[in-house]
Design a protein that fits this description.
This is Major facilitator superfamily (MFS) profile domain-containing protein. With 461 residues, the protein is mainly α. It has one domain: Growth Hormone, Chain: A (Up-down Bundle). Helices cover 67% and strands 0% of the residues. It has 22 helices and no strands. Helix 10 packs antiparallel against helix 20. The protein is globular and about 55 Å long.
């Protein structure tokens, strides 16, 4: 990068994105900001970015295991209210659309927490294990507030918003932490972590499937798991040698991150992915209960929750498998290609599962396929952004990506029950989720055709 990088660091030069695949810096860097631009297709040690991470630092698998366990337990509180929503609706005297705000509040809290984290560059300034531990313990405490019978609906919404705000210290921090140990196998590492996030998000449904009919058992169990996850990472995780240097907050960092075309396309694909993902995760259990009661006459609303929860757990387990396999495939085949394929498949499942409702075995098959592919590309968007963004501000870039993507989920989480209130049945309600992945494919194709793809997965795109 030579003189051009020196000029950029001094705030006097522009780097044009061309065959070199370098980030576009326009206007020149403000004085005092120093950025390390990502390598085109080589890791720090000269190896190709991709594959199994055999050239990454020793000890990486131990630390990844710590993060996996922490993520599994630490994300258990996300859908704790969604899993027991029928009980909470009865307790607070609310309807389906109003009940959606108990999940929407988590998304809003997560977005606010993520933007606050980005505002103060927390993932770059504080040790990631500390941010993770504090976030998990805070989320557990906020989730525990739902155990109070006199909390009321308004108090429950505040509790859920605080839960989401604290969880903003868990997920982005874990992704940042994995990047300190993995460069060549970063896609796989992030894929595994998103897989554990998926399993962790399914813990309240698993507790329900195992017979936890008392909603307080689900709330206690998810809070306890989240605390243990936070302490586990806080005590055992150590940042790796690939850690970027800590930096002080500078408001000028955010415009620089968002002016890079490759970063914007990566975020655009993530938008399409997120439009679908949390709408599915939030409402699939309700879809399954409606399916078993009203289509297949498997019982009443009182005795099918356990069966529906098993279907939801199947969805989440399939997602874990998709993430692990997807990380391997993406590192070897290319992240943008894999993300585009996943969104084509998941978008098709979104259109097909409603009309398939009369055929229960087909619904189960589509559940497994959709569950696997709807999240199998999730980590790849983070990996893409981590590879094309300014490396010294990777934590901030990932946080901005995640926060803006989760902002979009608020719309789909509200839209599905709204459509139901307007008379649209579950035969068609979930099909609205297909819009996102199909638009996300457009962003991935554009990224693959741009010079930015040279920086992704060792030039594989």
């Amino acid at each position: 990068m030579g003189q051009e990088l020196i000029d950029a660091k001094a705030g006097t030069g522009n780097l044009e994105a061309g065959q070199s695949g370098e980030c576009l810096l326009s206007p020149p860097l403000p004085p005092g900001i120093e950025l390390e631009l990502p390598a085109k297709a080589k890791g720090a040690g000269g190896g190709h970015v991709g594959g199994d991470g055999e050239g990454d630092p020793k000890g990486r698998w131990t630390q990844l295991t710590v993060l996996m366990a922490g993520m599994l337990m630490g994300m258990a509180t996300w859908f704790s209210a969604a899993a027991v929503l029928p009980r909470l609706k009865d307790a607070y005297g609310i309807g389906e659309t109003t009940g959606a705000f108990l999940t929407i509040a988590v998304q809003i809290g997560f977005v606010v927490g993520s933007f606050l984290s980005a505002l103060f560059n927390l993932p770059d300034v504080l040790p990631v294990r500390l941010v993770f531990a504090m976030g998990a313990c805070g989320a557990a405490a906020a989730n525990g507030a739902l155990l109070h019978d006199d909390l009321g609906f308004e108090g429950a919404v505040v509790s859920r918003a605080l839960t989401g705000m604290f969880l903003a210290g868990v997920y982005p921090s874990a992704m940042k932490a994995s990047s300190t140990w993995f460069r060549q196998g970063r896609g796989f590492a992030m894929g595994v972590l998103v897989g554990m996030l998926t399993l962790g998000s399914g813990i309240p449904f698993l507790l329900k499937a195992l017979g936890a009919n008392d909603h307080k058992v689900v709330l206690w169990g998810t809070s306890a798991a989240t605390v243990f996850g936070g302490i586990f990472v806080g005590v055992l995780f150590k940042s790796g040698p690939l850690a970027t240097k800590s930096v002080k907050f500078d408001i000028r960092v955010l415009p620089l991150i968002l002016k890079d075309k490759s970063t914007l396309l990566g975020i655009g694909g993530y938008f399409g992915h997120m439009w679908e993902l949390y709408g599915l995760w939030t409402w699939y259990n309700d879809f399954a209960e409606d399916l078993l009661v009203n289509v297949h006459n498997k019982g009443t609303e009182e005795d099918v929750p356990s069966s529906a929860a098993w279907l939801t757990t199947t969805l989440m387990v399939a997602g874990f498998a998709g993430c692990v396999v997807g990380g391997r495939v993406a590192d070897k085949w290319g992240r943008t290609r894999w993300a585009a394929l996943c969104m084509v498949i998941s978008g098709t499942c979104s259109l097909a599962i409603g009309p398939a409702r009369p055929h229960l075995p087909l619904v189960v098959l589509l559940t497994i396929i959709w569950g696997a592919f709807v999240v199998a590309d999730s980590a790849q968007f983070s990996a893409i952004v981590s590879e094309v963004c300014y490396q010294d501000y990777m934590g901030t870039a990932l946080t901005v990506q995640i926060a803006s993507g989760f902002s979009l989920t608020i719309l789909t989480i509200f839209l599905i029950p709204y459509l139901m209130d307007q008379g649209v049945t579950y035969r068609w309600a979930l099909s609205i989720l297909s819009v996102g992945p199909f638009l996300g494919v457009v962003a991935m194709v554009a990224l693959l055709k741009s010079d930015g793809h040279l920086k992704i997965a060792g030039g594989r795109g």
